[in-house]
Amino acid sequence: MTEDRPPPPSSPPSPLTAREREVLRHIGAGAANKQIARALDVSVRTVETHRLNLKRKLGLVGQAELIRYARRAAADDEG
Questions:
Q1: At what angle do helices 18-28 and 33-40 cross, to 10 degrees?
Q2: How confident is the model at residue 75 (pLDDT cuts 50, 70, 90)?
Q3: List of domains in the chain
Q4: CA 30/CA 48 separation, integer angstroms
Q5: How many CB atoms lie within 10 A of CB 67?
């Protein structure tokens, strides 16, 4: 069965804020909310809000889809 989701673009879509793109990069690297919060000097709740906004803007459902998207985007950025 094939998935009907489009592959991630080579760079995140323009509607994402710079901070959302940072959070997406951290998610792609496998970081947990607490680790992302420490790295960006924000609260865990702020990271959770960024994750919700990312899912909404990218049309993703669930954390697993967000993680898969972030990993593919990270892989595309590497080469």
A1: 130
A2: confident
A3: 18-78 (1.10.10.10)
A4: 15
A5: 15
Q: What is the pLDDT of residues 24-65, one digit of tens each?
A: 999 999 999 999 999 999 999 999 999 999 999 999 999 999
- Rounded (10°) CA dihedral 73, 58, 65, 2: -90
pLDDT for 5 beyond 90: no
Closest by CA position to 26, among listed 64, 75, 59, 74: 74
What pLDDT, on a 0 to 100 scale, did the predictor assign at position 2?
A: 54
What is the rounded distance in angstroms from the CA atom of residue 14 to the CA atom of residue 59? Answer: 14
Rounded distance between C-alpha atoms, residue 33 and residue 48, angstroms: 7
3-state secondary structure of 6: coil
